[in-house]
Amino acid sequence: MEQQPPNLVTVRTFRDLPAAMVAKTVLEAAEIPCFLADANTIRIDWLLSNAIGGIKLRVRQEVAAEANAILNQEIPETSEPDEGESN
Protein backbone atom coordinates (compact mmCIF):
# COMPACT_ATOMS: atom_id res chain seq x y z
CA MET A 1 0.00 0.00 0.00
CA GLU A 2 1.39 3.36 -1.03
CA GLN A 3 1.60 5.93 1.75
CA GLN A 4 0.35 9.41 0.86
CA PRO A 5 2.32 12.46 1.99
CA PRO A 6 0.57 14.67 4.56
CA ASN A 7 -1.46 17.63 3.36
CA LEU A 8 0.65 20.64 4.28
CA VAL A 9 -0.42 24.26 4.42
CA THR A 10 1.53 27.46 4.84
CA VAL A 11 0.44 29.32 7.97
CA ARG A 12 2.93 32.22 7.70
CA THR A 13 5.55 33.60 5.35
CA PHE A 14 8.61 35.56 6.42
CA ARG A 15 11.13 37.70 4.61
CA ASP A 16 13.91 37.01 7.13
CA LEU A 17 15.14 33.85 8.81
CA PRO A 18 15.23 35.10 12.45
CA ALA A 19 11.49 35.88 12.54
CA ALA A 20 10.72 32.53 10.89
CA MET A 21 12.83 30.68 13.46
CA VAL A 22 11.00 32.38 16.35
CA ALA A 23 7.60 31.34 14.97
CA LYS A 24 8.83 27.79 14.34
CA THR A 25 10.13 27.57 17.91
CA VAL A 26 6.79 28.79 19.29
CA LEU A 27 4.93 26.04 17.42
CA GLU A 28 7.45 23.38 18.41
CA ALA A 29 7.07 24.42 22.06
CA ALA A 30 3.33 23.78 21.65
CA GLU A 31 4.21 20.35 20.20
CA ILE A 32 2.97 21.22 16.72
CA PRO A 33 5.21 19.65 14.08
CA CYS A 34 6.28 22.21 11.49
CA PHE A 35 9.08 23.09 9.11
CA LEU A 36 10.43 26.04 7.19
CA ALA A 37 10.28 25.74 3.41
CA ASP A 38 12.85 27.69 1.36
CA ALA A 39 14.83 28.68 4.48
CA ASN A 40 18.10 27.30 3.15
CA THR A 41 17.73 29.09 -0.17
CA ILE A 42 17.15 32.42 1.57
CA ARG A 43 19.93 31.71 4.06
CA ILE A 44 22.33 31.38 1.13
CA ASP A 45 21.04 34.44 -0.76
CA TRP A 46 18.54 36.60 1.13
CA LEU A 47 17.95 38.73 -1.97
CA LEU A 48 15.91 35.83 -3.37
CA SER A 49 13.35 36.11 -0.57
CA ASN A 50 10.89 38.30 -2.47
CA ALA A 51 11.37 36.37 -5.70
CA ILE A 52 10.42 32.99 -4.19
CA GLY A 53 7.76 34.25 -1.81
CA GLY A 54 9.77 34.27 1.40
CA ILE A 55 10.30 31.56 3.99
CA LYS A 56 7.15 29.50 4.47
CA LEU A 57 6.16 28.07 7.86
CA ARG A 58 4.29 24.87 7.00
CA VAL A 59 2.15 22.55 9.15
CA ARG A 60 -0.23 19.67 8.55
CA GLN A 61 -3.66 20.80 7.46
CA GLU A 62 -5.27 19.16 10.52
CA VAL A 63 -3.39 21.45 12.95
CA ALA A 64 -3.38 24.65 10.88
CA ALA A 65 -6.17 26.31 12.87
CA GLU A 66 -4.43 25.55 16.17
CA ALA A 67 -1.10 26.79 14.79
CA ASN A 68 -2.71 30.05 13.61
CA ALA A 69 -4.37 30.56 17.00
CA ILE A 70 -1.03 30.16 18.76
CA LEU A 71 0.79 32.48 16.36
CA ASN A 72 -1.96 35.11 16.64
CA GLN A 73 -1.60 35.40 20.42
CA GLU A 74 -0.29 38.72 21.65
CA ILE A 75 3.15 38.83 23.17
CA PRO A 76 2.79 39.70 26.87
CA GLU A 77 4.37 42.90 28.10
CA THR A 78 7.48 42.43 30.19
CA SER A 79 7.52 44.29 33.45
CA GLU A 80 10.49 46.37 34.44
CA PRO A 81 11.81 45.68 37.95
CA ASP A 82 11.10 48.37 40.55
CA GLU A 83 14.05 50.52 41.58
CA GLY A 84 14.19 48.80 44.97
CA GLU A 85 14.23 45.27 43.52
CA SER A 86 17.38 43.41 42.64
CA ASN A 87 17.77 40.91 39.81
How can the largest sheet be summarized?
A: 3 strands, antiparallel
Low-confidence stretches: none
Structural domain count: 1
Task: Report the C-alpha radius of gyration, rounded.
Answer: 17 Å
Mean pLDDT: 88
| Secondary-structure class | alpha+beta
Task: Give the helix level as a range of percent.
Answer: 25-40%
Shape: flat
Strand order of the largest sheet: 1-3-2
Number of helices: 4
| Secondary-structure element order, N to C | EHEHHEH
By DSSP, the count of extended strands is 3
Distance between the termini: 60 Å
Our estimate of the beta-strand percent is 15-25%
Please explain how this structure is put together.
The chain has 87 residues and is α+β, with helices and mostly antiparallel strands. The protein has one domain. The protein has 4 helices and 3 strands, in the order βαβααβα. It has helices spanning 17-29, 39-44, 49-52, 64-71; strands spanning 8-14, 34-37, 55-60. It has a 3-stranded antiparallel sheet with strand order 1-3-2. The chain is flat. The termini are far apart. The model has no long low-confidence stretch (mean pLDDT 88).
Question: What is the secondary structure topology, with strand pairs?
Answer:
Layout: E1 8-14, H1 17-29, E2 34-37, H2 39-44, H3 49-52, E3 55-60, H4 64-71
Antiparallel strand pairs: 1-3, 2-3
